[in-house]
Specification:
single chain, mainly alpha, about 65% helix, globular
Length: about 180
């Protein structure tokens, strides 16, 4: 089945590029608000996060987020390593764009989320601690939440929550977690 809308594919390509640049732009912006010691750390965090997040998304992320549902909680590993995705066949989740393009856009959202989370603790966390969060946060928090809402999991089926942009699992859950650890001076 060929995808019909070249305009949709072109637009999603541009948006994917913008979200990828947003992660590095966010890190550069944060360097201006931090001490000199942590400015380079933020840029290193962005590079490590982009690398680790891309590899993790390719291996299991897409499949856990958008694979066939396992009782609405998580996707199966049937689509691991982008199995079944191509540049010509339409995505099951976005009917007018190629599956590989949809997966790339969703990967950018998955990559930027832990970076936004760790920006609050940039001066307190070292690279090893950040790497652990970059590995564990997506697997245990982001991928399941993405599946619950955009991967047609239990929140989508039982409550009818529809989120096309990724704002629920990216922003609101990060805000929730930050509020859990917020300490007044």
């Amino acid at each position: 089945m060929e995808c019909g809308s070249a305009v949709d594919a072109a637009w999603l390509s541009v948006i994917t590029l913008f979200v990828a640049l947003q992660g590095f732009s966010f890190a550069i912006y944060q360097t201006g608000t931090r001490s000199c010691r942590s400015s380079n750390t933020l840029l290193v965090h962005a590079l490590i996060n982009f690398t680790v997040g891309s590899i993790l998304w390719y291996f299991v992320g897409y499949s856990l987020s958008f694979g066939p549902s396992q009782k609405g909680l998580i996707g199966s590993l049937d689509d691991a390593f982008f199995w079944g995705l191509s540049g010509t066949n339409c995505s099951l989740h976005a009917n007018s764009v190629p599956g590989i393009l949809f997966a790339s856009f969703e990967m950018m959202l998955a990559i930027i989320t832990p970076l936004m989370l760790l920006s609050a603790w940039a001066e307190q966390i070292n690279i090893l601690g950040a790497l652990i969060i970059y590995l564990l946060w997506p697997i245990f928090v982001y991928y399941p939440m993405t599946h619950w809402i955009r991967g047609k999991g239990w929140l989508h089926h039982h409550f009818g929550i529809v989120d096309q942009s990724g704002s629920f699992d990216c922003a609101y859950f990060n805000r929730f977690l930050r509020s859990c650890f917020h300490q007044d001076p």
